[in-house]
Amino acid sequence: MSGGPPFDVCLVVEDGYPHRLDAVAVWCADLVSALAPRRLALVSVLTEGPPPANDVAAPPPHVAALGQIVFGAGGLRVHGLERGGGRAQASTSALSRMLSRAARERYAEALDRVVPLFEAIAGKRAGRDATTRERHDLALEVLAGDGPWGLDPRGLFDTELARARLEALEGEREQPTHALPVPTLVRAVLEPLARLLQVSLPPARCYYAVGGSFAAHLALAAARRTGGSPVVIAEASHGLERRLLQLHRGWELGAPEAERDVGRRQERAAECLHRLALERADAIVATGPSDRAFLVQCGAPPERVHVIRPGSHLPPVAADAPVLQAVAARPPWFVASWGAVDPIGDTLTFVRCARELVERLDLARFVSIGSLSAHSAYYHGCLEQARLLYLAPLLRFLGPRPEEEVLAQLHCLVATSVSSRGGAAIAEALAVGVPVVAVDTPAHRELLGEGGQEAGLLAPPGDPVALADAVARLLHDDALRRERIGRGRERAVQQLDRRAALQRHAQLVDELLAAAARRGRATASTG
In terms of pLDDT, which residue wins out, 211 or 73? Predict the structure, then answer.
């Protein structure tokens, strides 16, 4: 396509590939391979700093450009990466660049113009003798996405648009809230998105965002600059937005009630950003029917949501493979929870379940596999709970680990996540013959089949005693365990084929590119 964008697809990934050890990263690596021979650009958005060199996977040759956006407590750093001398080296490629001084000045000037608007309109509404809480309340309404202004990134630097929308709020009021400086609130909620959107992604015929809506908004902004390239969103959560909004506050609130209030507003802001991204994307990928229902509830147009199960990264083992026989072994038992240590993953229930199992199993050992940095306070709370329950020698938090390394040793996988998506660890376990006990959620019932009882056992969410009962039953009953393992392997073969899932993703990209080409020809003919 002469004169068109230099890349067929630009993949924008939050906190994942080219890291090696994360399940989504492995999925992205497979997706990158499946999109060959299309010419790809790859941008990773990181919140924990660049990974160690040995934790970065080498992308295949058809990935023609690499970039990193490191978005942490130290600010925003953007690196273009290109291969040279056998390793990745920093460069100033056109893929992504450091914010120039002029760009930073434009952002500061725009912010300085917007902040007085909040104060002027709020002061006009409240009068000379009103307390500052009135003005702060108006700012919080707007920053939380309430009213007609909301958090539309397109209007962020448009002074006249901001003025018109703010004036429309003059008749709307909530209960006064805590007196926080308006510039503080503006920077707390808008700054992360504003700074991120100033990064230029490479021009591409299609943008594919994996993760939350920060990746999606980057892709959507780039698509507008290229004249309307289609945008796909996969793994569409908004957990990262919450972390970034909290990470970039950069100020002390002082009072606990103020901390709670701004936290609530930031949560609303994250939900608003998520909804905006879903409404504007050309296609959204759901991992199952329950995930589709969740995304539609969040604002995704139903006709644009495509259900594609991610499948198992590991190929299903043969029915007579040694790994299937190994689970019939006797103690010591090895039980694991898999997923980020955070409230959504409900790792605390696994910790309490481990305490129950100590009383029921001989020589049991427990591990938690997954990110420890997604919710630092929650992780330390789990550590403290383990200490209080005298589990310190028996329960270990290992952080991310390769699936093959851990699954080969497991007697049971325990899934406590209450998310509407996920199940990657369950799919891997079923494929290699590890029995599964999961909390009863729609996503887990879909993965395990027949209401969750075909290939595993279910327990009520948040109930460590019931969860321990199910694990103990599975480990003590050899016939039940073998039955669930056999059905799980069959299910992995029939319904959790990673290759078929990746082919569907590639087909979706091709369908969107073909539709965009037809629109372009139609526009040219009518013009």
Answer: 211
Question: Of 312, 313, 304, 292, which Cα lies nearest the Cα of 420?
Answer: 292
Q: What percent of the chain has pLDDT over 70?
A: 55
CATH number of the domain bearing residue 453: 3.40.50.2000
| Domain co-membership, 88 together with 159 | no
Measure the CA–CA gap between 264 and 484, rounded to whole angstroms. Answer: 43
pLDDT above 90 for 467: yes
Strand order in the sheet with 456-459: 395-399, 364-369, 333-338, 412-415, 436-439, 456-459
Q: For residue range 156-189, what is the model confidence (pLDDT) as tens digits? A: 334 444 444 444 444 333 433 333 344 444 444 4
The token pair at 70 is 């490191």
CB atoms within 10 A of CB 319: 12
**CA–CA separation, 395 and 408 (whole Å):** 18
Cα R_g (the chain), whole angstroms: 25
Alpha helix stretches (DSSP H) within 144-255: 159-167, 182-196, 213-225, 239-247
In this structure, what DSSP letter does residue 206 have? E
- Of the two residues 473 and 372, the one the predictor is more confident about is 473
Residues 405 and 327 placed together within one structural domain of the fold: yes
Are residues 178 and 215 located together in one domain of the fold?
A: no
Give the integer Cα–Cα distance in Å for 240 and 518: 35
Rounded Cα distance, 96 and 86, in Å: 21
- What is the Cα–Cα distance from 94 to 103, expressed in whole angstroms? 16
Q: Which residues contact 52 (CB under 8 A, 6 or more apart)?
A: none
| Residue 263 and residue 301 share a domain | yes
Cα-to-chain-centroid distance, residue 444: 19
Distance CA 398, CA 414 (A): 15
Highest mean predicted confidence (pLDDT) among 159-173, 351-365, 406-420:
351-365
Helix (H, G, I), strand (E, B) or coil at 88: strand
pTM of the entire predicted model: 0.69
Residues 122 and 142 in one domain: yes
Q: Print the domain residue range for 130.
A: 102-186
Q: What distance in Å separates the CA atoms of residue 376 and residue 490, rounded to the nearest whole number?
A: 38
Are 330 and 432 in the same domain? yes
> CA-based diameter of the chain, in Å?
82
The confidence score (pLDDT) of residue 264 equals 57
Indicate whether 211 and 67 sit together in one domain: yes
Peptide bond into 332 cis (omega under 30): yes
Domain total for the chain? Answer: 3
> At 289, which amino acid appears?
P
Q: Which tokens in the block code for residue 289?
A: 């029917």
Q: What is the pLDDT of residues 37-78, one digit of tens each?
A: 888 888 877 655 555 444 455 566 666 666 666 554 444 555
The closest alpha carbon to 143, from 110, 169, 123, belongs to 169
pLDDT at 236 over 50: yes
| Cα 386 from Cα 398, distance rounded (Å) | 14
Place of tokens 């938690």: 368
